[in-house]
Amino acid sequence: MKQYIQSKKQEMIDLLESIVNIDSSSYDKEGVDRVGALLKEQFEEIDMHVKIHRQVNVGNHLEIKAKQDSTPKILIIAHMDTVFPKGEAKKRPFSIIGDKAYGPGVNDEKASHVQALYAMKALQASGSPAINNVHIIFNSDEEIGSVSSKALIDEAAADKEYSLVLECGRPNDGVVTERKGVGHFKIHVQGKSAHAGVEPEIGISAIEELAHKIIRLQQLNDYDQGLTVNVGLIRGGLSVNTVAPQAEAEIDVRVKNKEQAMNLTKAIHEIAAEETVDGTRTELTGSIGRPPMERTDASEELFQRVRSIGKELGFNIHEVSTGGGSDASYTAAKGIPTIDGLGPIGEFSHSETEEYTDLPSFINRTILLAKIIEQLSE
């Protein structure tokens, strides 16, 4: 398999260029579906079964197996959407400088699409029955919370023994074994307007009430314990000479474990319910949408197997914890041993200029993925 993948390097780069040069923002259904159509064609060329899960507001999701009625035990997840707007690919198309490939979404995570395809091709070319043990989900809305694809991921994960998630690999052969849970809340405060110069005493300032809440929300941060609360957006008021009748804030939260998630959610609800400025009313919406990917004994055992396979191939695999969210959280929350960051290695995802994929790792991580699938299937 190693020799096969190495011999296909230029093919892999050519396909990566084609995918990177297609805009596929989470909100660009047409673009995401073009990526999906290209991947569907590629997987069908090696006689794999591709099912399209059609969506109205986002791109269609793809579900891929060797055979329609197979019952594989390994789930592989990668997303087709990016954070970049339509027109970005034309503005800065795919390019190679030295050993690095650049372009919008090259690292997050279009290189992973090609990696998954050629790992399957290598298994097929070697005659390995492990190709029948793989269930691939390419979803279209990971960057905006996987709202429409979560049910598909949950269904696919129901009978799985392992979950391999192809977010980009970390420098120096890192993979991800722990991720924070991610939440988004919105607080809306209603007050009463009044002329700030003529009769301010009859007004009720929603901004004043929100200010008290923001201070308390920020005090919930506990960096030493990996818990973060960030009031990142605030809006409010009608004009500078009007007592503000309304104000709102949006809050990003990150938690390391389920206990933190429960306690933090309770604290945010308590802050929203407490009235400091008489006469204001507060509405709280939102939740912790992505559960934390917690490190468990089962995931530790899987990591050790991955590290051992990597060592056989000459890679020094190490584990990384990160605050970013991914679909790995959903399978980990179901108790399925999960390893993330198995994609090609790169850095600066979401950057408008610096995002890159390391091309030697593009090949090496494809070899690694194929060997992991083969050995987990034995």
TrEMBL record:
Domain spans labelled Peptidase M20 dimerisation: 177-278
InterPro entries in the cross-refs: ArgE/DapE_CS, Bact_exopeptidase_dim_dom, Pept_M20_glutamate_carboxypep, Peptidase_M20, Peptidase_M20_dimer, Peptidase_M20A
Superkingdom per UniProt: Bacteria
Cofactors that this protein relies on: Zn(2+)
Key words, A-Z: Hydrolase, Metal-binding, Zinc
Pfam families tied to this protein: M20_dimer, Peptidase_M20
Protein name stated in the entry: M20 family metallopeptidase
Organism listed in the record: Bacillus lumedeiriae
